[in-house]
Amino acid sequence: MKVFRLARAELNKLFQRPAIFLMAGFLVVALVLVAILYNPTVRTDTRIAYEGANTTEIHTQFQSEKNSIIAELSGVVDEINNFTYNINNGTSKLDELKNKIVRAEDSFKTFHDSLLYAEDDENEQINLTPVKDNLKTFKNLVMEVQTYLSTIETDIDFYITSGQLNRLKNFFERLNNDLPTVTTNYDKDDLIELANFLNESRNFSNNVYSITNNLQEITLDATEIDKIVEDYYYNIVTDEDSKLNVYERQIEEYYTSHVGSSQDEDIEALNNMFSNYKSIVLMAKECLENSYTLLKTSNLSNSALNSYVGFEDINKYTIEETLTKNTYLLNTGNYDIDFANNFNFGTTAGFETSAYDFTIYAMQILTFIIAVFCLFFGSGLIAGEHTGKTMKMLAIRPYTRNKIYLGKFVACIAFMLILLLVSFVASFIVGAVMFGVNLPNVLLVINASQVAVVHPFVVMLIYLASCILNLIFYISLALLLSVIFRSSTVAVLTSFIVYVATVLCNMLMVGVSWFKWLPIAHLDIFKYFGGASSSGGFLTFNTIIDGSLGLSLGYLLGIILVFNLASLIVFKKRNIA
């Protein structure tokens, strides 16, 4: 109870400061500006809208495009089957590359051996034509390898880093440049000099095989490939009772009963059915591609994967998130347009702007302002007592230092919660007045593995909880700095420098493998609720490589605990005389 009495007293002091009116003014002005300037990008409606005077005309258009829609999915299946066949039957790109290199080296040996024979022959009039022909063959094979290396990055079937690939490219490029265009003017001495130079400076074993012998081929289990093809192609498209064929029969039944109708509602209903048909194919295509990518990369962590050519931009979390979402929609017979997307800074969740979109947008900005003021007040709470010479008076009262610190910590939390909740309620009211509250349920993909259909207000509460955790981190950091520095000015400035650094680090280092071990990488929990691929706002951080909800939540709570324990230890040992 003493902690709460201290917290209440500290909270009263905070709200009696003149700066509180300045802060309130900032929040009001910010909300007004957001209301005036808010102009989000409306979610794109992906539904097909064939134009025609009646149902017959739009049905004809659908029939003419239907095969091309399915052909895209069939093309993916063919690509997967060909890739798998080549790997499992010894005709992969890695095998082809190694064969080309071996042929080039064998050609060099043939050229070199024929030259040694010519060198041993003392007859200056010896026929050098075979030697020159061998040199030409060698040069052509070197150029062939060089060309192959320049195109190998497309649909690559083995793991090679950009450094390894560049070393191979540079080796064969230099080798090609060293080889002259053979003319009749080349005599035996010229060829001997060239061969000796190549033999000494262009050693295949040291420069090529040290790389190619360590390259790892992508492995694919044919049984697993057959399963994803069956799940997302045969069961969806080709089988007699596949989802697509069943739905196509429903389309034809509806069309037969409304053939030639020019009623707007019949045309719209048929267009919606065509859109759903296309959505089924596109979702199956995405599921097939994503499952295929995950199978190819299943034996590597995301950070290790990103070091290889062709996989630099892959984020396995976002792939898993999309796969989980589409699989759910296919299994339940629902469609993406039936649900609102997760909230995204600057883009509407539904096909019209709602109060929820405005609230999320406004809270991104208002939370940024609240974070700044929490840093300002928090970093001065204890350092300010030293600066104002009031710490000793506080310490002689019947409170332990633990209770004094915890009282200030609780006061900061309460201060933040009041500001955050007031801002949240005000933003929602303004949004409801301006845009209304109509929005379908949101399809959440939790931690890229679980799907939940929830009311949009529940999503807003999850976002609010994420903001609270985010701000508690900054409050804990501010109090730690306030304990370390006796000067409130130094503590405040340091807090702001650290805050700016966190934002810059998020923008500049998110792709770095060790970024996930920094506390700032885990400040945004909301991205693990279906927003991994969404663009963020001021307090939204990109999805980290090899991240997860459990990792980020545990890490963030752990860092908050460490910050506060460190503050308590330093505060207890600090001489406040």
Structure description:
The chain is mainly alpha-helical and 577 residues long. It has three domains: 2-43 and 346-573, no CATH class; 55-84 and 220-338, no CATH class; 93-156 and 161-214. The chain is 68% helix and 2% strand. It is built from 20 helices and four strands. Mean pLDDT is 82; it is low at 533-540.
Give the arrangement of secondary structure elements.
Elements: H1 2-15, H2 19-37, H3 55-88, H4 93-120, H5 129-151, E1 158-159, H6 162-178, H7 188-201, H8 204-212, E2 216-217, H9 222-238, H10 243-257, H11 264-296, H12 302-305, H13 316-332, H14 355-381, H15 383-387, H16 391-395, H17 401-435, E3 442-446, E4 450-454, H18 456-484, H19 488-509, H20 549-573
Antiparallel strand pairs: 1-2, 3-4
Annotation field: number of helices: 20
Largest sheet, described in full? 2 strands, antiparallel
Count up the domains.
Answer: 3
Rounded to the nearest angstrom, the radius of gyration is: 34 Å
Provide the succession of SSEs.
HHHHHEHHHEHHHHHHHHHEEHHH
The portion of residues assigned to helices is 55-70%
Label the structural class. mainly alpha
Which regions are unreliable across 5 or more consecutive residues at pLDDT < 50? 533-540
Q: Ends: how far apart?
A: 27 Å
Average pLDDT for all residues:
82
**Strands in their spatial order, largest beta sheet:** 1-2
Strand content: under 5%
Large-scale geometry: flat
How many E strands? 4
